[in-house]
Inverse folding.
């Protein structure tokens, strides 16, 4: 179950998800996960005409039963909605020094 809310401040979006909150049919506790996050195109804050570019940054705070809290950070640069470069750093639950990077290209339409 989840929800997202557009704040009305530029492109700022906040969200919350909950997974496995209830017990299953055998009354066993499932590992629940609660995530809260925010994302925004930081180029919305720049007073230049950069319509062909976007730089979305996202922060997620992840809570799980029996585990430490994690803060995950990611970013995506897009040019003309055709070329994308993505990167992120997982929270403390990932392997030490772990990072993830990606890139893609395509056409819209």
């Amino acid at each position: 179950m989840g929800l997202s809310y557009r704040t009305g401040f530029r492109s700022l979006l906040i969200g919350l998800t909950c997974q496995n909150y209830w017990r299953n049919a055998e009354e066993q506790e499932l590992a629940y996960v609660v995530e809260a996050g925010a994302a925004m195109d930081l180029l919305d804050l720049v007073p230049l005409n950069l319509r062909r570019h976007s730089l979305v940054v996202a922060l997620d705070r992840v809570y799980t039963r029996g585990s430490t809290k994690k803060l995950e950070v990611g970013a995506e640069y897009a040019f003309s909605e055709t070329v994308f470069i993505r990167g992120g750093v997982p929270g403390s639950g990932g392997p030490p020094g772990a990072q993830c990077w990606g890139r893609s290209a395509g056409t819209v339409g």
In short: Residues 32 and 108 are 37 Å apart (CA to CA).
